[in-house]
């Protein structure tokens, strides 16, 4: 199979990089500044002057040479390149390099001590068979990481750490004097200190003992450690946060728009501890509505350059594991001063709109405010108001456990907000937004964090109400800068159009279930995608197709270079509404206030680097969250080893089939070696395993019966025994 170049999550190249890439990709050609300008579609005088300056800089740095007057060519060997190493679980490597359309294959014996994610120099040659690029790593420019999680195995005078990560192809040697009291069998964090040229394994030191494998806290802390995510704040950061003045001051109120007398309330999950957004509502004399989206003013407390700001930036996001939240900000802020709790005055940053009955925005205002939340609702409570149009909250829904009546003004506000949200959502869908309402798995946990039940989080009207107004604020804030002051540096949340090849693969898979996509245009693509997502609701294959559809999309990311948001069908979009848990929102607040005060454009390069860091940390957090869900699913299945489950085949590979249980969404694998009734081979085109003698087929989407063969909490593996196809067993 041809491995296509991966879409990387970094920023677009700056002018220097762009020009250098042109020279590198045509290393034997000579260019003048006009030819470079034409390739970059730069026609204005200012842009051409920038090109001339950049070419002179590249010449001074000896990256290019002037072979004739005004004619330039790249210097150096064209066989050596730099890129990022991506290892497979089987120990083969691919280097992702800007200079090649395809990733460069690196055999295991040519890795030369490079590890997954490292930035490397690679010598590239062609493979004889198919002329595709193959290479040998000649230098490690920068290690992606030096700390790893694994289990210590002690010999007489030394030990080895067997690393948990499947992409780590070597153990790490630890001398006896560098074990730091770790015991045989402990799960540890080990740091690589050296890798001598003749040594088979790198040498390391144990920096932290996590505990015994299989214990709950050990495994959760291991997940965080694998991605370099902290699970507690340094003492000096906690101390700094506790010394902050969190009181509401009269002098500060004078600088803000006072909204304390306007009806304001929050709607959040039942178990939420931090409330970073609130809605205010009032009917104006002209019959229109003034609706405020009020966001915790985190930037009032978290000042640029402070140790609190540095810690928040490094974390970049809160991490939501199954049994705990690892917050971006210390609790004194996240659950205290910056949480819009009921019956408390708070500093907020607000987007306030005048909206008519057609949900059209007539006027907008952005700025710092002071607010007072009159009421806190759980989504379930707001849902009761929407469904009954009444004011009675029953005891089994109430967050207090007692039945109560809601003030009439809040009921009327909730119903009107719901009505407007539905109009806005309908308009958004008509404009080409994609409705990903993927089912989210949640666990009921006992006091020891053991899973005792599984339930699914679903989006109802109350959730969608909040979502629409958050989208409105995010969109309008982005457009306020991007549309009216396009020259100003700003943080955008962008989402590129999906890759046509991925959509084609999705089309092939869903056709086996009787579904289809119309890929003729952007409009038909989004319309048919939405129809697909609607059609699969409630079906056994829903979760699998939802997942595959999401994977066919590009990844959203943060950048200063706006291209719009494909999935939401917005030309301008940002993140403004969750600064307690996302650092980009803090940056957006700061930039917005800076420009409201008449400030000059911020440094685009500095903010682009911060965007890239935030996007990367968001990815790490998402992977940690998925790992914690997988861990909890395996823990849940440990107590159900004697049961039969109906599942759907969610993946097919040459080594086996993946099966997702329909009732609880737990996914495990059946090894091809364990299917005993025939010798099975992998048919890539059919997404199936096919029996050689019986011609029996196990195909993507088939419903099968399984039971649990093995659960491994340490490796996070769940293995099933295949009982057979559902129809065969029933017959």
From TrEMBL:
Principal localisation: cytoplasm
Subcellular localization: Cytoplasm
Swiss-Prot/TrEMBL catalytic activity: Exonucleolytic cleavage in the 3'- to 5'-direction to yield nucleoside 5'-phosphates
Sequence ranges assigned to domain S1 motif in this UniProt record: 642-723
Classification via SUPFAM superfamilies: Nucleic acid-binding proteins (SSF50249)
Pfam family, one: RNB
PROSITE patterns associated with the record: RIBONUCLEASE_II, S1
EC category: hydrolase
Keywords: Cytoplasm, Exonuclease, Hydrolase, Nuclease, RNA-binding
EC number: 3.1.13.1
Role this protein plays: 3'-5' exoribonuclease that releases 5'-nucleoside monophosphates and is involved in maturation of structured RNAs.
NCBIfam families, per the entry: 3_prime_RNase, RNase_R
UniProt record similarity statement: Belongs to the RNR ribonuclease family. RNase R subfamily.
Name of the protein in its database record: Ribonuclease R
Top-level taxonomy: Bacteria, Pseudomonadati, Bacteroidota, Flavobacteriia, Flavobacteriales
